[in-house]
UniProtKB/TrEMBL annotation:
GO terms for cellular component: lysosome; membrane. It comes from Dictyostelium firmibasis. This is beta-N-acetylhexosaminidase. Its EC number is 3.2.1.52. Keywords: Disulfide bond, Glycoprotein, Glycosidase, Hydrolase, Lipid metabolism, Lysosome, Signal. Residues 201-525, 728-1059 form the Glycoside hydrolase family 20 catalytic domain. It holds the Pfam family Glycohydro_20b2. One of its GO terms (molecular function) is beta-N-acetylhexosaminidase activity. Residues 65-176, 593-702 form the Beta-hexosaminidase eukaryotic type N-terminal domain. The lineage of its organism: Eukaryota, Amoebozoa, Evosea, Eumycetozoa, Dictyostelia.
């Protein structure tokens, strides 16, 4: 007879400081077992071990949690989650906890769910916190326990000492919860769960260098999000270096003259925002201001701190700023004034309240002091016999300053080796934490000498090294060789992302998944994390969870995908520098607007934008207009604007919307007129809200921010008049989500980026032979052909995508390719495939089998899909101030793409069924078969009011018999475009040689140089609707999609929007460089103009 074991968890939580009291509570963990001994044996079977935590042959027992917890006990029951599920907590006063619960609720429950009829229904998880102390310092408590019953009646519990332990528990819970797309419910498999977890090391971080390339605040926040997902707890911010000084200092405001440009600076508001964002995720922000080395950028604003005549030394690294490493002049009083002043300023409670403060101390280039008589004279006065003594003199001052400020100095190993070198009697203070970056065995000596230590050996923890893969990172054991009695001095470690060849375009693919390997080794016990074999399937799954949350982690053993697959189951001197910057600035003619407007007239006056600036609607308003204005206001005014000048300022931009018609279809009006007088009167006028959107994007690109006086301004172009409209009505990007899956959040970001470019179409090539991820209510088994049950677009997802498209003026044009490229259809409905296709004699490509046109089910399903996805089931209810507005115009675009390309006729060759059907229908060849199928589909679309779009193969198949209603998309050569338009067909250009973005030779100049109307008769140009760049995803996934998209498709955007006369590559390059910067600033990771990654440290704005 089965019995239930009841485990009582007594929670005695008493906090005298805050008065939190939780009464003793009994939580039942029910287990379907026969007796207590069987329980123990059952849990032994499921405890983490090398064989059970990652062996594919024993997948049912694999614990897909990253990093692996310290102790896991679980069963084999599935508990279903109620649609009314909620988190609750005893610590209702904590804003940090409330934000975390809301954040994870929104991360987990992204789909509409149905109630489950089963008996095990989980309605609530209670989060019990023992202390309200939210101090973030070394050793803060991150431990947690999770208890999930197997019947759901008693809910679930998360118990932790602090809110940060609860945040780590919520990440674990996120990875435990699954969604069933077929039945539309959430569940937690393998219940009951008992998880007891805490980190192995107290310091687990990633260092990011923001000096050699600048990262916008939103990118840094996304970076911090990823740290939290990995259960890291430190963001080591290597903010400044020789290349640039982007940190705003109120004490020394000229420091930011050493930034790459006035737009690549972190304001005080930015810094505080980054620290707060990190705190809410349990991430300490450890600032590094390296000294006395790596200080060239300091001297841009304060030249007196650099050694005299350093450029005369052949051994002093040149050129500056890209490759030099000029140290401070340690004999200069100004150097000490500046260095100690910065330490005091950035260690105020209102700034960095983290105890650790990194002062570098590495790679002091002594030869740069060789030519300075001032330094030689000073050394004699101070009885210093070597440059090493001089460096120690300075470093002791900095260390003492930090200790006086109650901070813990952190320094690179150079300081430990310097103080311990021959002839040096001065000892490195024991308060200093030593960070190792060469030989990890140096930790044996540092810990033996009593120094707390961090491991960051360049092999394997330097992520800019392309030869280090995740297995090498994972195999590294930080404590190797350290005496057990000294191991408590090993605080943990950090992986390091140096940015010489990295910027926002490739950051996340460089960091992850390799840093994820570090996160598990630093969090989990040695026993639980000593096998790459068991780790691999879990890390593959965890990478998928990163991708689903918008973190572009690369494949495990490649910088880009190698083939289509599933994520889930993949198994200068100062003067030269100044003149360089000014020459760039003076070369750009007029404001660098992208794409170039139809007509523009600019003056040469500037204007400051008032701190009371607002958008003023002088016409009728709509909800979509309000959302658009709010979006751009928040995109523009990301800094505090302190200017309230008595001089002329721009106080408002008047918005005049002439029509409330928000219908999105081919030819919708996107024109606008923007006027700003030198007297500060601004007007933006458009016929539709979509014209307002395009005008606001232009306005956004006009505005700059001055970090010196905290003001927004428009420079050297007033008065201005811009009259603008697109050249072509159809301007889009094709995204293939079949060969690799893209999460909804990624698609929404792609839509955002399309709006920034003034594109107006997302051509969603959603399905293909490789996978069928589109949920169909008519034929639900079609998604059996998805890569996995987690890589599916539900109806809720589709609604979000179409809605977001509308909010950006982007038509969502669906493509369901038929009859070719249909193998994935047959996973759920095998009768759709021609019999005999897999006979070797048929020579049918396994990856590209067409539908069987003789099967009644083929036409039945094809017709049903056209009807289903041409309907209005996707209507959206907008909410505003508790009022609801139903939008009847939320549907897929009126252009519906049905493919018709690359039908592999040989796959029908061995089918007796097809041959018999051909005889019955008097069809003599396979071309006739394809024609009969396609004409039925075309007529079906026309019947339901859609405009069919087909690849050029259909035109070549039918020629002039193709109905004139069909729009032909050309992808081979211009000759077909000429033939199609000569015969009266409307066309869309996507010539592979120029506009297919996956090719290695694809670049912006090649794309910009292609003219869509080339060699077309003047009388036929009206038949060119526009064009599309295409992202085919065989070797592209979320980890590299933005680098592949931009800036090449940025060139396409201008070619399709701007007048035909815009062909000046030199001018285009300067404007495109500036536009790329605006994309990076908004979190769109566009690659450098002529490389897939940065080739050297540089400015985005001055590259």
């Amino acid at each position: 007879m089965k019995i239930k074991l009841v485990i009582f968890i007594f929670l005695f939580l008493i906090s005298y400081s805050i008065g939190i009291k939780i009464s003793n509570e009994k939580t039942k963990i029910r287990l379907n077992i026969d007796n207590e001994e069987i329980i123990k044996e059952s849990f032994k079977t499921n405890e983490i071990s090398e064989s059970d935590s990652g062996n594919n042959k024993n997948d049912s027992k694999t614990i897909y949690i990253w990093p692996i917890p310290k102790k896991v006990l679980n069963g084999d029951i599935t508990v279903y989650i109620s649609p009314d599920f909620q988190f609750s907590t005893n610590l209702t006063t904590s804003t940090t906890l409330k934000k975390a619960m809301d954040r994870y609720y929104n991360l987990i429950f992204i789909e509409d769910s149905n109630p489950h009829s089963g008996i095990s229904i989980l309605k609530e998880i209670e989060i019990l916190i023992k202390s309200d102390d939210e101090t973030l310092q070394l050793g803060f408590d991150e431990s947690y326990e999770i208890y999930i019953d197997d019947d759901g009646d008693n809910g679930g519990k998360i118990i932790s000492q602090t809110v940060y332990g609860a945040i780590r528990a919520l990440e674990t819970l996120y990875q435990m919860i699954k969604f069933d797309y077929e039945h539309q419910y959430y569940s937690i498999p393998k219940c009951p769960w008992i998880i007891e977890d805490s980190p192995r090391f107290p310091h687990r971080g990633v260092m990011l260098d923001t000096s050699r390339h600048f990262y916008a605040v939103d990118v840094l926040k996304e970076f911090i999000d990823a740290l939290a997902y990995n259960k890291f707890n430190v963001f080591h911010w290597h903010a400044v270096d020789s290349q640039s000084f982007p940190l705003t200092s109120l004490t020394f405001p000229k420091m930011t003259k050493g930034s790459w440009s006035s737009q690549e600076v972190y304001s005080i508001k930015d810094i505080k925002s980054i620290i707060q964002h990190a705190k809410e995720r349990g991430i300490r922000v450890e600032l590094e201001i390296d000294m006395p080395g790596h200080a060239y950028s300091w001297g841009i604003g304060y030249p007196e701190v650099l050694p005299a005549n350093f450029s005369q030394s052949n051994q002093c690294q040149q050129p500056c700023p890209t490759e030099c490493n000029i140290p401070l002049d340690v004999s200069s009083k100004e150097s000490y004034l500046l260095a100690m002043g910065l330490l005091r300023e950035f260690n105020q409670q209102s700034m960095f309240n983290e105890t650790f403060f990194h002062i570098g101390g590495d790679e002091v280039a002594y030869p740069c002091w060789n030519s300075s008589l001032t330094i030689s004279h000073w050394m004699k006065q101070e009885n210093l016999t070597s440059f090493q003594d001089a460096a120690i003199f300075f470093e002791i001052k900095a260390i003492e300053q930090l200790i006086q400020l109650n901070k813990t100095p952190v320094m690179w190993e150079d300081a430990y080796l310097l103080f311990g070198s021959s002839g040096i009697t001065e000892k490195l203070p024991l308060e200093v934490i030593v960070q190792i970056y060469h030989n990890p065995l140096l930790a044996v000596n540092t810990t033996k000498d009593g120094y707390k230590t961090l491991q960051s050996p360049y092999w394997p923890y330097y992520l800019d090294n392309p030869s280090v893969d995740w297995e090498i990172v994972y195999a590294f054991e930080p404590s190797t060789g350290i005496n057990k009695k000294h191991q408590h001095l090993l605080l943990g470690g950090e992986t390091c992302m140096w940015s010489e060849l990295v910027d926002p375009s490739n950051l996340f693919a460089k960091v992850y998944p390799r840093a994820s390997a570090t996160s598990e080794r630093l969090w989990s016990t040695i026993e639980n994390s000593n096998s790459t074999t068991s780790a691999k399937p879990r890390l593959e799954r965890f990478r998928c969870s990163l991708l689903s949350r918008g973190i572009g982690a690369a494949p495990l053993n490649s910088t880009s995908p190698q083939n289509p697959n599933s994520c889930i189951f993949l198994a200068t001197s100062i003067e030269i520098k100044k003149s360089f910057r000014s020459s760039i600035k003076n070369t750009i003619r007029n404001p660098p607007i992208w794409p170039a407007p139809l007509y523009s007239e600019f003056g040469n006056n500037s204007i400051i934008i008032s701190n009371e600036f607002n958008f003023t609607i002088i016409s009728e308003s709509t909800l979509l207009l309000n959302k658009t204005l709010s979006k751009y206001y928040n995109l523009i005014f990301i800094q505090d604007n302190f200017i309230n000048s008595s001089s002329i300022t721009l106080n408002e931009l008047k918005i005049n919307l002439k029509s409330k018609n928000e219908t999105l279809k081919l030819g919708f009006d996107e024109s606008y007129v923007l006027n700003i007088t030198k007297g500060g009167i601004g007007n933006l006028e458009a016929n539709t809200v979509y014209g307002i959107m395009r005008g606001l994007e232009t306005f956004y690109q006009l505005i700059k921010f001055n970090f010196q006086d905290n003001s927004f301004y428009i420079e050297n172009c007033l008065p201005l008049t811009i009259i603008d409209e697109p050249r072509f009505p159809h301007r889009g990007i094709l995204l293939d989500t079949s060969r690799h899956f893209y999460s909804v959040d990624f698609i929404l970001r792609i839509i955002d980026s399309l709006g920034y470019h003034k594109f107006n179409v997302l051509h969603w090539h959603v399905i293909d032979s490789q996978s069928f991820p589109l949920q169909s209510k008519s034929y639900p088994n079609l998604t059996n052909g998805a890569w996995s049950n987690r890589e599916i677009y539900s109806y809720h997802d589709i609604k979000r995508i179409i809605k977001h498209g509308k909010e950006n003026g982007i038509r969502i044009q669906l493509e369901i390719d038929m009859p070719g490229h249909a193998k994935s259809w047959s996973v759920g409905y095998p009768d759709l495939m021609p019999n005999g296709w897999n006979d070797p004699l048929a020579n049918c490509p396994d990856y590209d089998v067409p539908l069987d046109p003789s099967s009644p089910l083929s036409l039945q399903i094809a017709s049903a899909l056209l009807t289903e996805f041409s309907g209005d089931d996707y209507n959206i209810e907008y909410t505003d101030d508790h009022h609801y507005y139903e939008d009847k115009n939320i549907t897929f675009d009126n252009l519906f793409h049905i493919g018709g390309d690359e039908v592999e006729y040989q796959c029908w060759n061995n089918s007796n069924r097809i041959k018999q059907w051909m005889k019955e229908n008097n069809l003599n060849d396979f071309e006739s078969v394809a024609k009969q199928f396609e004409i039925i589909i075309i007529n079906k679309l026309l019947e339901i009011g859609k405009i069919p779009v087909m690849w050029e193969d259909a035109f070549k198949l039918f020629y002039t018999d193709l109905p004139k209603d069909v729009v032909v998309e050309i992808y081979h050569d211009q000759t077909t475009a000429i033939n199609a338009t000569n015969n009266g067909y409307r066309i869309i250009l996507s010539i592979a040689r120029y506009w297919y973005l996956e090719y290695s030779y694809s670049n912006w100049e090649n794309a910009y140089g292609y003219e869509p109307t080339l060699d077309l008769s003047q009388s036929n140009i009206h038949l060119v609707l526009g064009g599309e760049g295409a992202i085919w995803s065989e070797s592209i996934d979320p980890s590299n999609v933005f680098q592949k998209l931009y800036p090449t498709s940025s060139a396409i955007a201008e070619r399709l929007w701007s007048p035909i006369g815009n062909t000046d590559l030199s001018n285009a390059r300067l404007r495109l460089e500036s536009f790329r910067c605006s994309l990076l600033k908004r979190g769109i990771h566009a690659a450098p103009l002529n490389s897939s990654y940065p080739l050297s440290p540089n400015s985005c704005y001055q590259s």
